[in-house]
Structure prediction request, 246 residues.
Amino acid sequence: MYPFLVIGEIKIQTYFLIIAALAVISFYWVYLKSKKQHLNQVFMLDLTLVLSVSGFVFARLFHVIYESPELYWNQPVQIFYFWNGGFVFLGGFLGALLSGIFFVFIKNKKNMILYLCDFYSPLIAFDYAVGRIGCFMAGCCYGKFCNLPWAIEEKHPTQLYAFVWDIILFAILQLLPKLNGWQKKNCGKDGRIFSVFLIFHGVGRIINESFRADFRGPIFLLPLSTWLSLTMILASIILIIKNKET
Prediction:
């Protein structure tokens, strides 16, 4: 594990270096893709800022409220020490989704919601995958003990499992709209790419949770992340059914 990048006397946390790089890549990706699709670039970049900030805040809040409430109750100032780590991706995803929908509504573009969900789905998969490399470097989100040939410090490298799974998902989401069969079957049906993301990521997350050894906060025998992933899968199935009816 390499939690810090040391350059001379400068010491930088690897995790936040990766997150910062992802932020730059994300904005540039949105800029290029929105230009290619002839979208309002000011609106798209504003929306990306809303999604990024709300995702960061809600990911932190989920950690504070759910994973370590006693620590932050006794030392509330620690809530703002985000550089010490402590984020929950699915909390950030949910917060960003709700904030994004609200922003789109106040901009009178509610008819674009599913289209925008499709637009951002590959980027979310990419950011999540590369973000897990940050987790790996920091040594968090580790797996259970194992003696497999690819074990790292006698543990499942669950961060790398997640990276591989969602990088494949990213490639799939990028490829699907370019397939002739997909275009003919799903032409004009916004939300299909988002549905694929929800199902594929949800299944991967449930599998990954079974190998995790860090605190998972079980609710009715299952981690919160598993329940949220099951909800994602159910939501995607409902979305697919509704799309078929139209």
Notes: The mean pLDDT is 90. The beta strands are 4-7, 10-13, 218-219, 222-223. The first strand starts at residue 4 and ends at 7. The two ends are 50 Å apart (CA to CA).
